[in-house]
UniProtKB/TrEMBL annotation:
Binds 1 FMN per subunit. CTP binds at D100, K110, P126, D127, I128, V129, F144, K158, K162. This is Coenzyme A biosynthesis bifunctional protein CoaBC. GO terms for cellular component: phosphopantothenoylcysteine decarboxylase complex. In the C-terminal section; belongs to the PPC synthetase family. In the N-terminal section; belongs to the HFCD (homo-oligomeric flavin containing Cys decarboxylase) superfamily. It comes from Alkalimarinus sediminis. Keywords: Decarboxylase, Flavoprotein, FMN, Ligase, Lyase, Magnesium, Metal-binding, Multifunctional enzyme.
Length: 222
């Protein structure tokens, strides 16, 4: 179904978790599997796009026919995203579960056990999708909102605040569609419209989302 509609378009996708170093042997991260972002990369490639997948560490095979850029931290991911968008980017999809904070001080040596209690101070990470959306040459920019309550209201807020063209909202309090599952159900919001997709495989959903992006970005051939 979306064959060829993205021919000649360059699509950049972030996926997976980020890892934020505590010291040379430890990190903080999250349970993102990367499945939704990888499925979107495959769907965009199948639609004829030239795709770059900027990915945090996941256990998924690298999709064929996609430029693959592995990264670790949020700061690395931002740098990779900015330089990829510098080359050319028509559609930017932020599917990564970027760590909101990182340890402020990262010692060069392993932290030794001593006190019974310890504190790690964290500082806020840069917002990758918001910095891409703030560019003068802004691509069609798509974000995700994983929420546990007031899903639509929070997603709407992020659409405006981050200056996105589209946001994909999902209710992660629902066990069937959580972080690691094979399936997902989402509501996609844009300025003045929305469309809901019932529970389906992430790969089917990815194709539907690519079709919707294609029509919202006015790339449809029909
Ligand atoms: O604010 P929140 O983390 O819920 O926003 C989610 C959206 O923003 C996702 O598309 C995510 O990839 C993106 N994001 C980002 N950089 C961050 C935090 C979130 O690109 N530091």
């Amino acid at each position: 179904f979306s064959e060829g509609v993205l021919q000649g378009k360059r699509v950049v996708i972030t996926a997976g978790p980020t890892r934020e170093a505590i010291d040379p042997v430890r990190y903080v991260s999250n349970h993102s599997s990367g499945k939704m972002g990888y499925a979107l990369a495959i769907a965009a490639r199948n639609a004829g796009a030239s795709v770059e997948l900027i990915s945090g560490p996941v256990a998924l095979p690298v999709p064929e026919g996609v430029k693959y850029t592995p990264v670790s931290s949020a700061v690395d991911m931002l740098e990779a995203a900015e330089s990829s968008v510098d080359q050319q980017c028509d559609i930017f999809i932020a599917a990564a579960a970027v760590a909101d904070y990182r340890p402020e001080q990262v010692p060069e040596q392993k932290i030794k056990k001593s006190q019974d209690k310890m504190v790690i101070e964290l500082i806020k990470n840069p917002d990758i999708v918001a910095s891409i959306a703030a560019r003068k040459d802004k691509p069609f920019t798509v974000g995700f909102a994983a929420e546990t309550q007031s899903v639509i209201a929070y997603a709407e807020g992020k659409l405006q605040k981050k200056n996105l063209d589209m946001i994909i909202a999902n209710d992660v309090s629902d066990q069937r569609i959580g972080f690691n599952s094979e399936d997902n159900a989402v509501t996609v919001l844009w300025q003045g419209g929305r469309e809901s997709f019932s529970l389906q495989s992430k790969s089917l959903l990815a194709g539907n989302i690519i079709d919707l992006i294609t029509s919202r970005a006015n790339y449809s051939k029909n």
